[in-house]
Amino acid sequence: MSKTIICESCGAAYEDSLRRCPFCGTATPEADENAYMDKLEETRLDLEEYGPKSMDKMKKSVLNTVFIGFIVILVITVLAVAMVWFDGFRDNRERNKRKEELLKDQGVTVGMLEVEINEM
Ligand SMILES: [Zn+2]
Questions:
Q1: Is residue 117 part of a domain?
Q2: Which residues make Cβ contacts (< 8 Å) with residue 37, sequence separation at least 6?
Q3: Dihedral of CA 102/105/106/109: which sign?
Q4: Confidence of residue 118 (pLDDT cuts 50, 70, 90)
Q5: Residues, CB-to-ion distance under 5 Å, ligand 1
Q6: Which of 32, 35, 1, 28 minimizes the C-alpha distance to 13?
Q7: How many independent structural domains does the chain possess?
């Protein structure tokens, strides 16, 4: 936002974006201040981009990435364990079925076997 200022020495009006009066060349304190403030703002924005705040943001994003990675690893582990467990479960069932069939072939049913064990 530029505004008009009046030169202190010659009284001419000109925009405050100029650091000197275009008519007499006198430096304008207001324009100097504005230029300084602009530079300050620029520096502040630079600091915001590379300063401690951005470090916090970076840390947060790194933490997020680590967290997501952890979740993914956890899910994969759970899936792997579940698959191994299910395989074992299926193997066990098949083994039991085979055992039953073997016993049936020998004329022994699982019920009879249980009775025998109970009587012992
Ligand atoms: Zn002037």
A1: no
A2: none
A3: positive
A4: low
A5: 7, 10, 12, 21, 23-24, 26
A6: 28
A7: 1
